[in-house]
Input
Amino acid sequence: MKPLCAALLAASLLLLPIATVSAQDVSPATADTPPGNSSPKVELPEGEDQPVNPFLPGEQLIGISVGLQIPAFLVEKTGGGVDNLDLGGSFGFSYQNFIARGFALGGNISGAFNGTIGGGSLFIAPLGLTAAYWWTKLPFEFSILGEFGAYLMRYDGKGILDPFAKAGVGAYWRISSGWSLGLQGYLWFVPEVHYGDYSYLSQYAGFVETSIAAVYHL
Output
């Protein structure tokens, strides 16, 4: 064998392992890249970029809302019942802290006002503890909420303090890493309880809140 051929053969044998390793390092996604597309298609492992529920313990939310307050029912019905109440407005401020994946506890302070056909006014100011469950299907977020507490009511200069409950749902659009905007719908249960000789005045009212909400993710 000529020295030149022997040298070429030896060099080829030395370079063979390097070429083999280089070929193994080529990503399959590069081979699948369509002609004319210089960016390889990278497939992330399923579920890695979208966790089952991204609301993790320790995360916090602050929410503000404004909307309509719609009289729904009144039991025992006196006079014209809810027909005596006009469409009103509502507002609220809330805080929630996640204690488990998707599950949050917090508090809410809100207010609502309705006029009457007689020119009077009804104002309700609830303060409650809330429990909510959140989940997401990006870019949308959803919540189910329950609240229990107490409310202060003023009607034509007279006040009363009684228990209060609220339940409903919310749907939001995540517009940035910090903010979500959406719609909420809640049913307020507002009992007016009297005792003793005035127990016959007890009545139980319901209102539907439909509101626009902004949620800030801390």
User: Anything to note?
Assistant: The helical segments are 3-24, 28-31.
